[in-house]
Each structure stands twice: as C-alpha cells, then as structure tokens.
C-alpha cells in the first residue's frame, strides 16, 4: 500500500497543477516526483492524472483519491499533534477557524492568552463564513471553529458549545447624513448602500423586512475589519453584534443608528463548534477553555 509521502506528493501536484511547481513545493526533483506519482498510481491500480502540455488535470479516480488523501494527511497531523502535545503543550500546531464577527474581538483576545501560555505551539487561523468552516471541519482541515451556530443545532455531525449572545446594531461613521434624521424608516436606509457578511437565514429574513421584501445588502464581505474601514470612510452602512463595535462606538469612531419603532435586530449566536464524537487535541481543549472563560467575563449586551 502507498505511504503518506506519496499522498503528500499527489496532493501537492493536484494543488499546483504542474509537476515542476509541485516538485519545488515538496523539495523533490521533477523526475523523483513523477516516479512517486507513478508508484501511487500503480499501487492503486488506476490513473490519477491526465498529463498535457499545460500541466495536469485530475481524472475521476484522482478526484476521489484527493479527497481521501487530504483526510488521511489531516488525520496524520492530528495524531502527531496529540502525541507531541500530551502533557506539556511545548510543540505541535493548532488549526482553527473563526467567523467574521468572533474574529474581530473574541478570538484574537483568546489567542493572545493562548500564545502567552504556549508560545511554541504553532497556530493557524482561518477566517471564513460558517458554511465554509463547517466543510473544512468535516474535512479535518481545522479542529474547531467559532462562528454563528444557529444553522447547526440539529446537525448530528457537530458538537456546539454556545457562547454569550449580543444584540445587533446598525452603524455608520459619525458624520453620516442619517445621524441627523433618526429614528430612521426603511426608506431612509434604502438611500444608502448596506454592507455585511453572509447572513444566517434568520438575519436575512429580518433584512428583507427592513428592505421592503428584498435583500438590501449592496456589498457582501466576510472580513469584518474591511467592513469597518469601509463604513468609517464612506456613507456605507453596516450591521453587527454590539460586542464587535462597542469599543469603536465608545471611542467615537463609529455611531449606531436608531430605527423607527425600535425593531429588534437579530442577536448573535456565537458558539464553539467541533466534530461530534471526536476528541480535541490538548491545544484545542486549552483554547476552548480560554474562550469560554473569557466569554464569561464579558458583559452580554
């Protein structure tokens, strides 16, 4: 049976799409990489790639093997981490994800504490929307993630640890024209672009009600720091859980807007998500404890 080195070589080839670039990435000569791929194909009894002048493309067998190879390699990394971290957390790595809003406050604060306690553990943080994070978790690319979890409560593949909820706010720059027209009607909001991250169904429906039945988002971006910069330098509006804009509002960099009738904007539904039935590495367990302790110290809004 093939070994993990051949699988690593094959994944590199699939990702780079070219033998020369893949060989450089895995520190092999091109002939050596070609022999490794041929040996893998021989052991599996199928062709994995079609070779052509522009590089390579995966066959149907290659697509299948790529999916399993990534999972096997991720499992191998997880095993190495668990063994190396057992007892002292003096080495290894931690791969985690975060949604745009937790990545703006809660996760950086927790990672700061974690790095201070375990400076030799390498941390890789991926910021994405909750749908992509779920896929990466189930593909063993990350161990856990912190994001909006309201779509996950009935998912049998996931273990969800709920965190504190914060009310949603609509915000803009202090000099925005709407600051002088409060309370605002839906018609007032429709005069200016609205930016936000990918929204859960519950929040999307609320936005549709505010936008007269249509989704009012003009700009979608899953990087909340970009959204804040956009809002602070233009007449674009945005919305977010209070905890991620509180410091900016208190410092006068942003202001919140009040809607007519004072409708309640959807609250956040942060949670820590991991795979059901799978134990976490010592590093992931330690980070989860830090997040929960820090979240407990935050006054909910």
From TrEMBL:
Q: Does the keyword DNA-binding apply?
A: yes
Q: Which domain of life is it from?
A: Bacteria
Q: Where is the HTH lysR-type domain?
A: 1-59
Per the record, its GO cellular-component terms are: cytosol
A Gene Ontology molecular function term for this protein is: DNA-binding transcription factor activity
**Is the keyword Transcription regulation in the record?**
yes
**Keywords annotated in UniProt:** DNA-binding, Transcription, Transcription regulation
Record's InterPro entries? HTH-type_LysR_regulators, LysR_HTH_N, LysR_subst-bd, WH-like_DNA-bd_sf, WH_DNA-bd_sf
Instruction: List where this protein forms a coiled coil.
Output: none
Family per similarity comment: Belongs to the LysR transcriptional regulatory family.
Q: What is this protein called?
A: LysR family transcriptional regulator
Native species: Aquipseudomonas campi
